[in-house]
Specification:
This is SDR family NAD(P)-dependent oxidoreductase. Belongs to the short-chain dehydrogenases/reductases (SDR) family. Pfam families: adh_short (PF00106). The protein is of the alpha/beta class. It has one domain: Rossmann fold, CATH 3.40.50. Helices cover 45% and strands 12% of the residues. It has a seven-stranded parallel β-sheet with strand order 3-2-1-4-5-6-7, with helices on both faces. Helix 3 packs parallel to helix 4. The termini are far apart.
Length: 264
């Protein structure tokens, strides 16, 4: 995918992985539109970029807000969605509202963004879409029993990305799944603020934090990996490829050992 001189919209670019992606795309020569619900953090990201960058506010859970933004972007070559939410709590504590909250943040933000900006992407040759998944959304063994919201919705996003890739392949629109794992960011903090707004619960930024002592990859590094992935037309971009491959092979072995099959 050609990047230099093109325009990218990064939704969720105010911090974390989104900011790292915006920085890397800016360095690769793109005009980056920094979009986030929080205008303060969006501007902080914009201040780190070249003068080509623009800063906008958008609510990625609202199709109306996305449509308003789309009306202000005449040309778009690359759509990147990094919005998400995490919570960690036992299954029997989860209400329908909790499930809807996670579904909206981890799945529908991508679905709505694609629906909104696909017409603009179709007008450009060699355009692309990047959605942000997680290792929790892959078939890895030993999932966290308290991570149902995050794991379930990230699995759904993985499935959606694969279908989207197949649907757009004939149009030459590149679809990439970014799978960060152990990357610096503040997902737990932004998720806590979102839960407080949604449910009125006390602010708890501890839930969903990275395990203590875990070595984290700087967010700009995953952004640089994404740039390489786009240039090389890769389907997935991840910072733990060998580990994830081994874990998925283990899962396939488990499938073979413990599956009852019916011959037709």
């Amino acid at each position: 995918m050609e990047l230099t001189g093109r325009t990218a919209l990064v939704i969720g670019a105010g911090s974390g992985v989104g900011r790292g992606v915006a920085l890397a795309l800016d360095r690769a020569g793109l005009s980056v539109i920094v979009a986030d619900l929080d205008p303060v953090t969006a501007q902080q990201t914009g201040d780190l970029l070249s003068e080509r960058a623009q800063v906008v506010q958008v609510d990625a859970t609202s199709q109306a807000s996305l449509a308003t933004l789309a009306s202000r972007i005449p040309v778009l070559h690359l759509l990147v969605v990094t919005v998400g939410g995490i919570d960690v709590r036992p299954l029997d504590e989860l209400t329908e509202a909790h499930w809807q909250w996670a579904w909206n943040l981890n799945v529908m933000t991508s679905v709505l963004a694609v629906q909104t900006f696909l017409p603009a992407l179709r007008q450009q040759r060699g355009s692309g879409i990047v959605l942000t998944g997680s290792g929790s959304g892959l078939n890895l063994p030993d999932p966290d029993p308290n991570a149902a919201l995050y794991a379930t919705t990230k699995h759904a996003l993985t499935g959606y990305t694969g279908v989207l890739r197949a649907a757009l392949a004939s149009e030459g629109i590149q679809v990439t799944l970014l799978v960060p794992s152990g990357v610096e960011g503040n997902l737990a903090a932004t998720s806590a603020r979102s839960r407080t707004a949604a449910f009125g619960e006390a602010l708890d930024e501890a839930r969903g934090q990275q395990p203590p002592g875990r070595r984290l990859l700087p967010a700009p590094a995953i952004g640089e990996a994404l740039v390489r992935g786009l240039q090389e037309n890769r389907t997935f971009v991840n910072n733990r490829g060998a580990d994830f491959h081994a874990a998925m092979v283990e899962w396939l072995d488990e499938w073979q050992r413990n599956t009852v099959t019916v011959s037709t």
